[in-house]
Amino acid sequence: MKKILLVALIPMLIIPKAYAEVTQDSCLTDLDHNPELATIQDKVALSFSENQTNAMLANKKTPNDEETKVILKWVHQRSVCYTRENEAKMNEYMPQEIKAINTAIQNDLERKSIDLADGKYSYGAFAKWRAERYEKYKAEYQVVTDSINKRREQNNNSPIVT
User: Fold this and answer.
1) Is the pTM of this model over 0.85?
2) Whether the Cβ atoms of residue 31 and residue 37 lie closer than 8 Å to each other
3) How many C-beta atoms lie closer than 10 Å to residue 142's C-beta?
4) CB of 90 closer than 8 Å to CB of 155
5) Any residues with CB less than 8 A from the CB of 100 and at least 6 apart, and which?
6) What averages of pLDDT result for each successive group of 10 residues across the chain (162 residues)?
7) With contact defined as beta carbons under 8 Å apart, do 81 and 27 qualify?
8) CA 12/CA 81 separation, integer angstroms
9) Does an H or E element contain 95, and which?
10) Phi, psi (5° rounding) for residue 10?
C-alpha cells in the first residue's frame, strides 16, 4: 500500500537550490514551516537537501505508520511546488541535457523515497544518500552547462546557462 501511494505522489524531492531559487524557492521554503509536516520536520530536510542537519544524517530510525503518512503529504506538496512553478519553465526553456539529468535524479529519488517509506532505510541513510546524490547532480549539471556554453560560444552566441 505504501509503495503504491508513493509512486503516485513522488515527483521530485530534491532539486538543486541554485535552480530552485529561480523557479520555486518560496514554495519549497514554505514546506519548512508547514504544521502538517511537523512530525517529520526534524527527520528530513523539507525544502532543500542542503538544509539537512547532523541529527538527520545520524538518525537510525525508520518511519512509523504516522510518519509514512506525513512523508506522503510532503511528497505531494513538493509535487505541487514542482508542477506549479517549474513545469512550464522546464518544458519551454530548459535544455534537453538538463531535463535528462533532472529526470534521472527524480527517478533515483523516487526509488529511495519508496524504500524510506517502506522502512528499508533509516532516515539517516536516506539523508546521506540524498546529500551524495545532490553532489553528483551538481557535478553532472556543471559538466552539461559547461558543454552547452562552449557550444554556444563556438556558435558566437552568448551563454545563457550558468
Assistant:
1) no
2) yes
3) 10
4) no
5) none
6) 42 42 67 94 91 96 95 83 65 76 79 85 96 94 91 72 50
7) yes
8) 9
9) none
10) -80, 120
